[in-house]
Amino acid sequence: MALALTAGAATSNSAIIDVTLINNQHTCSLGFNGTNATSLNYDLGVISNGRKTHAPFTVDITCQGDTPVKTALTARNQNGNLVAGNDKMVLPIGGNVGSSGPLLGLENNGKNVMLTGNEVDAFCVQTGINSSCSLSPVTEVSASDPRGEISATIRFDVVYPA
Predict the structure, then answer these.
(1) pLDDT digit of tens for each residue in the chain (162 aa)?
(2) Among 13, 21, 36, which residue's Cα sits nearest to residue 137?
(3) Which domain of life is it from (predicted)?
């Protein structure tokens, strides 16, 4: 015995819908202010043996528009070696990078700032149109550290955490 199967033909309709998605890129800029901060430079003055917390400076974050934006900062050592912990850099003496002191770090609200530049190490997380972050340079010099002219560069970037 055979069973006869019947099927109807399927019909389909399609439509094309154009979708426009606008994903505005946040545009925030950085500025620097403080007693020892002029333009993009901070003068540590003469540093001496021991640990010293220097006068703070502020990093000002200014965003375009009138919508609050969640921002954070990263800091990356540009011309010295990071020491274990990634929160201090060996300061170059006369342009020569050594493997030990003198050391430079940054503190934000009593906490060490990581100098990796990685977003996972971001600090000063804030939401607003304009915000600022206070940072204090900290130097550590031992009696056996080399002496000479010191110049260090730390790059700051604004990031937009989720």
Answers:
(1) 445 555 555 566 778 888 877 666 668 999 998 877 767 788 888 888 999 999 999 999 999 888 898 999 999 999 889 998 999 999 888 877 777 879 999 999 999 999 999 999 999 999 988 999 999 999 999 998 888 888 889 999 999 998
(2) 36
(3) Bacteria
Q: If residue 42 lies in a helix (H) or strand (E), which one and from where to where?
A: strand 41-42
**Number of other residues whose CB lies within 10 A of the CB of residue 114:** 22
Amino acid found at 70: K
All domains in the chain, ordered by first residue: 30-159 (2.60.40.1090)
* pTM beyond 0.70, yes or no: yes
The continuous run of DSSP H or E covering 125 comes out as strand 123-128
Q: How far apart are CA 97 and CA 94, in angstroms?
A: 8
Structure tokens at 56: 């703070």
How far is the C-alpha of 112 from the C-alpha of 136, rounded, in Å?
Answer: 10
